[in-house]
Amino acid sequence: xxxxxxxxxxxxxxxxxxxxxxxxxxxxxxxxxxxxxxxxxxxxxxxxxxxxxxxxxxxxxxxxxxxxxxxxxxxxxxxxxxxxxxxxxxxxxxxxxxxxxxxxxxxxxxxxxxxxxxxxxxxxxxxxxxxxxxxxxxxxxxxxxxxxxxxxxxxxxxxxxxxxxxxxxxxxxxxxxxxxxxxxxxxxxxxxxxxxxxxxxxxxxxxxxxxxxxxxxxxxxxxxxxxxxxxxxxxxxxxxxxxxxxxxxxxxxxxxxxxx
Length: 260
Prior knowledge:
Layout: H1 19-32, H2 34-57, H3 65-93, H4 97-103, H5 107-140, H6 148-173, H7 176-200, H8 202-211, H9 213-222, H10 229-256
Helix pairs in contact: 1-2, 1-5, 2-3, 2-5, 3-5, 3-6, 3-7, 5-6, 6-7, 6-10, 7-8, 8-9, 9-10
Keywords: Membrane, Transmembrane, Transmembrane helix
Organism: Nocardioides glacieisoli
Transmembrane segments: 38-57, 69-88, 115-139, 151-173, 180-200, 231-255
């Protein structure tokens, strides 16, 4: 009686999945579903509707391109982070994580692909928002003046921070409803609560930019030119509390979580 010999399959020479392919897959996953397409389209349509209303309702001296792009950026800033949240939490809320991490077992590459894909989608929506702002400027009959502060800090930097914030919250909670609620509490409820407390206590108003990231960002947007040393320190401290720490904790949790 002869024993059957079994050969071990050597996959050490198999090339890894290209990172660009992972990024393209994550972008497709965000847009291929009906919910993803409708949500992305709704962001654009809502931005267009708000900009058109603003173009007709705003005073004539407030219809410049800089004013309109600030309005479009404000709408985009509230909803773009939700798109990033859904990109992260979809693996867990829709139970596709087992398939994803089986096809690509290196979770760090998947997370990086999701972040890069989210940045690409965000860049695309930012460009569309700029086009919408241009349409609003034409409708309102405003001129094309815009300051570097409005374009860079109030539009580009603000939306980049929003993208990273949404990504961090999504990784930390890994649940779509909970992450969306947490994001709106962070972006809407928390600044209002801090503002109310600051109006009653002067010492808390001075402390707020150091412990609340939205307050520090508001000061950055109001400040013309380069931020002062104190403002940079406030952004660094509050940003570490509300962005860097949640991002690192969320990344650690996502890398260790058990797909179900």
